[in-house]
Here is the input.
Amino acid sequence: MERKTYRIIALDMDGTLLTSDKTIAPDTVRDIRAASERGIHVVYCTGRAVPELELYFDMVPMMRYAVCSTGAFVYDRVEKRCIDRRPVKSEVAAALAETAKRYRAMPHILTDDETIVAADDVTHMKDFHAGIYQPMFERITRKVADMAEEARHLTSIGKVNIYFRSPEDCHACYEELRTLPLSFAMPEETTLEMTAQGVTKGSGLRALADDLHIPMAQTVGIGDSDNDRAMLHDVGLSVAMGNASEDIKALCDLITADNDHNGVGEAIRRILAF
Here is the structure.
């Protein structure tokens, strides 16, 4: 492969940086530190909001920047500074929450500094195929009675997720909503993510690269699922995890090990050797 200099490595979290039990392996931390010591910015590029990242900030203190909410909010956690914000209109988010009700689905709103769910939903997230997230949601979310009513009063909505009871419901709801002025992703078979039109992990990473005065040709993206697609298309070097879907692997320049075998670290070591 042609020798190149890469100055940003953007990491998806679930299925990429995190193991299946939602931790960061010590070997991965070691490899991220090695890249940071070489002057490379290793950054989060995730569907999660800032409150969902705070558990990990102390584990990898060298990771300063975060592209959050699938690109809607770009954050410098050291200076506690918003680098870029692309919100969903509150009335649109309210309509999404109303639609979720008809599917008996679970809407989830992410703002700059909060993650919000219905109190009735968070107690049985396994019904929405999201049970692994329930302890985190119980700990960090703000619970409300009516998600649509709550949305109407919010001004910094980065993303709306809807968790469904079945893949069929997820696809049917997407067909109902797809003409709205939004960007859509299905990171899992029963999860629909919605950001403002044109907002993706790729657009968020571009905003961060511009802030750091780094060309996109000098960026690397590592991911595994549908909401990584734009990022993997836009970066200078794209890396698919070993656990990625086949269509994501087909998009990428490299394929690394899976998320339970330090695929991120393997990719970083290969990049450092270029």
About this structure: The chain has a mean pLDDT of 96.
